[in-house]
């Protein structure tokens, strides 16, 4: 039987791919064809609640109705992230923590508030040994990356539009990693999600809004240095031990 693209990717290349959904059925199907982790976020959480109410409604009902909106949002994210982490656990244990993580995202509204992000990160890190703290690669986020890295907590920096953000994440992680090693703590996983498709989309929107008449060729040339820049080991989905 011919392999599909993801099976080929997992079996015949060094690439490790993660599943981008919180749906139980989809997670199981993804692991069957080689996925090694699961990403979650508010949108994916809402989508799985809508797609599988039969599965999630009893769990959601068990939360009760007494929480403040932000607390409830975090509790809903936790439901999906911890379920995904449970499904990832066999891979995590088989690879001694190199693979098999689920991402637990911090509140996007707090992306510029290091103190609030750090407080939430301290809660998310307790969701499971294979839950990776996911946050935006902002200036405030770099403070959290360094702090989590210094304590051996796996971390994922998302919304990286430019190479400079990825490099800033790598530097913040390395500072934290050095502190962890100095204190006898095993360094955790560091992931950088480089989103190449966002910058060109943004430039197209700006050009259209300004009626600038910028050609597609100009946009591609503007994006090319970012898309083609070499990435170091801290910018890939691999752990640095």
Largest sheet: 5 strands, parallel
Quick check: average pLDDT? 90
Total number of strands: 5
Query: What is the distance, rounded to the nearest whole angstrom, between the alpha carbons of the first and last residues?
Result: 38 Å
Percentage of helical residues?
40-55%
What is the number of helices? 10
Structure in words:
With 241 residues, the protein is α/β, with parallel strands linked by helices. Helix content is 55%, strand content 10%. It contains ten helices and five strands. The chain has helices at 5-12, 24-32, 42-51, 53-61, 69-94, 114-124, 139-150, 163-182, 196-209, 216-228; strands spanning 37-38, 101-105, 131-136, 155-160, 190-194. A five-stranded parallel sheet has the order 1-2-3-4-5. It starts with a helix and ends in a 13-residue tail after the last helix. The model is unreliable at 227-241 (pLDDT under 50).
What descriptive keywords fit this protein?
single chain, 55% helix, 241 residues, alpha/beta, 5 strands, disordered C terminus, 10% strand
